[in-house]
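Sequence design from tokenized structure. All designs in this work follow the same two-part layout: the structure record, then the generated sequence. An example of the structure record is given first.
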């Protein structure tokens, strides 16, 4: 898959670009609804002998449009999005810089510059897609803006339990620890990747060594707590327990939560390695214990519960 970053105005030339079927949207999470939109574009491309593309934006529009938002955390940060789109068979990824100038483009200018000028012959969007200044363009106006140069497929609402599957809904589920439900709407487990860095080396002393992960600050994490996780490392899958929190039993003033994982039945050195965690099940909130002994007893219980969880799940 080729990734092409575009900032308005771009200088790509129409006659140097292949005819393309493209899906358009922000697509944070690449959930089941997004997958339907994207797969439709990939299939249209195959059927019409065209290239397939996804047209997306970066950063999230809220950074530009909302005054109080400076930094957004993503269910799928750019790197993750790229890998998933590649797996879905997308040939090109256009990433349009979302800035003030872009947000002020009139709907027709947006279509002229970013759809027609990119040689898009078939556009796939969800039923609630909007474009152009103040979102004035939508799936009702798109045919009129197409200048009869491209066809449009609109995807009906993909639902779970009578409600639209959306990035917003998945974020809410993650904030309340409902990772299993979030995973259902995503159509796969939520993942986070990180490099193993040095921790306080206390884990070994308490009998539960943990790999502490350095995680990019644009990654959306679920709510603070203890989780049943799977760990993907060098083509192997392990089971384990993760703690996402501030370790209040030992530290009083940590600003940022840390993610650490105890991998079951594994005790080699992992410093510097990249681990991918799959979040499967929320066990409990983190607790400030009065002693290391109490914490250890609780972790023993956590381990039993998580081993039981995986034994019944598989
Ligand atoms: C399954 C699990 C549950 C944990 N629960 C708590 C908790 O409830 N409260 C807490 O203060 N720390 C908790 N921790 C974090 C430990 O305090 C931490 O792993 C230990 O201090 C080692 O830290 P280090 O890796 O930085 O050396 C938990 C860790 C694991 C693996
Ligand atoms: N459940 C869904 N069913 C069908 N199409 C969808 C669904 N969710 C999103 N889409 C479409 O996918 C594209 C990307 O949408 P967008 O990134 O706004 O996702 P979203 O999940 O609706 O996000 P948010 O919750 O932030 O509004 C758009 O074309 C949108 O209409």
């Amino acid at each position: 898959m080729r990734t092409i970053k575009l900032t308005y105005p771009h200088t790509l030339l129409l006659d140097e670009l292949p005819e393309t079927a493209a899906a358009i949207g922000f697509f944070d999470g690449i959930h089941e609804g997004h997958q339907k939109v994207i797969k439709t574009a990939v299939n249209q491309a195959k059927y019409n002998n065209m290239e397939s593309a996804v047209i997306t934006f970066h950063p999230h529009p809220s950074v530009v449009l909302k005054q109080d938002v400076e930094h957004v955390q993503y269910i799928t940060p750019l790197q993750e999005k790229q890998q998933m789109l590649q797996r879905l068979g997308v040939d090109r990824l256009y990433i349009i810089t979302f800035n003030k100038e872009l947000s002020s483009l009139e709907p027709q200018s947006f279509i002229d510059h970013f759809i027609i000028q990119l040689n898009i012959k078939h556009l796939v969007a969800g039923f609630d897609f909007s474009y152009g200044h103040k979102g004035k363009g939508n799936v009702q106006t798109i045919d009129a803006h197409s200048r009869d140069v491209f066809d449009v497929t609109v995807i009906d609402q993909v639902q779970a339990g009578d409600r639209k599957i959306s990035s917003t809904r998945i974020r809410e589920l993650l904030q309340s620890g409902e990772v299993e439900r979030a995973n259902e709407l995503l159509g796969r487990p939520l993942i986070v990747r990180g490099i193993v860095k040095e921790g306080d080396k206390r884990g070994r002393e308490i009998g539960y060594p943990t790999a502490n992960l350095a995680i990019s600050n644009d990654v959306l994490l679920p709510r603070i707590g203890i989780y049943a996780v799977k760990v993907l490392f060098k083509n192997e899958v392990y089971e384990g327990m993760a703690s996402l929190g501030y370790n209040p039993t030992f530290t009083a003033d940590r600003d940022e939560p840390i993610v650490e994982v105890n991998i079951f039945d594994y005790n080699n050195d992992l410093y510097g390695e990249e681990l991918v965690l799959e979040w499967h099940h929320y066990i409990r909130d983190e607790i400030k214990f009065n002693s290391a002994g109490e914490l250890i007893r609780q972790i023993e219980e956590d381990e039993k519960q998580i081993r039981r969880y995986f034994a019944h799940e598989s």
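The chain has a mean pLDDT of 96. We note this feature because it recurs in several other targets discussed in the main text.
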